[in-house]
Write a structure and sequence with these properties.
By secondary structure, the chain is of the alpha/beta class. It folds into two domains: 1-40, no CATH class; 41-195, Rossmann fold (3-Layer(aba) Sandwich), CATH 3.40.50. The chain is 32% helix and 21% strand. It has helices at residues 21-25, 35-40, 55-66, 77-84, 98-104, 108-115, 137-141, 171-182; strands spanning 3-7, 14-18, 49-52, 90-93, 124-126, 147-149, 159-167, 187-195. A four-stranded parallel beta sheet has the order 3-8-7-4, with helices on both faces. The chain is globular.
Length: 196
């Protein structure tokens, strides 16, 4: 068995990874962060999220989304793959406004699922460049519709799973769910990487 040395994407400590047939033949990803960094992320007790929001997650989101460190999309790929690999519902990402995506240079949600090798589709468009993080709880709850169906999108009577990075008040997910349900979705469930 050969060992290759890589470094933790968060702290740069060396990672010793053994190449095995199990890793090569199954959908198991090489570790991208060390055990010490991994232990800083708090798993969520909620069935609708992987992790709880804490200081480690705040730092991760800042570096990934705002400092545009797209390599960090790989950090949670094993957990996301395990969660979604047998998902029967069509996975839909909460989209970014095109201007925000151009500014950021990548869609952080798309990159998370691509890194985890999870198929997804896009049926929604964001209607505003405003972010929910810039609003207080009351402003988030009273916000105008955030999404619309993409031109030519057909929402069959199927089950959909909305995926977003973080849930705080649930306004974003509620707005997206309403658009899909009003367009004919049979059922819409929600799942997030982080429960805020």
């Amino acid at each position: 068995m050969n060992k290759i040395e890589t470094r933790c994407l968060l702290c740069s400590r060396p990672l010793q990874s053994a190449i095995s047939w199990k890793i090569l033949l199954t959908k198991q990803f090489q570790s991208t962060i060390c055990d010490k960094c991994s232990a800083r992320f708090e798993h969520s007790p909620a069935a609708t999220a992987l992790y709880q929001y804490n200081d480690a997650m705040k730092d991760y989101l800042h570096q990934y989304k705002f400092l545009q460190d797209v390599a960090l999309a790989k950090v949670f790929r094993q957990e996301l793959h395990a969660r979604f690999k047998n998902e029967k519902a069509t996975i839909i990402l909460i989209p970014m406004h095109p201007l925000k995506q151009k500014e950021r240079t990548f869609s952080h949600m798309e990159e998370l699922l691509k890194a985890a090798d999870i198929p997804f589709t896009q049926l929604l468009e964001k209607t505003t460049t405003e972010t929910q993080s810039s609003k207080n709880r009351e402003q988030r709850i009273q916000v105008a519709p955030l999404f619309r169906l993409m031109t030519g999108a057909h929402v069959e009577h199927k089950e959909y799973l909305l995926f977003d990075d973080i849930k705080t008040t649930g306004t974003t997910l509620r707005h997206a769910s309403e658009i899909l349900l009003n367009a004919g979705a049979r059922n819409v469930r929600c799942f997030t990487l982080i429960n805020g």
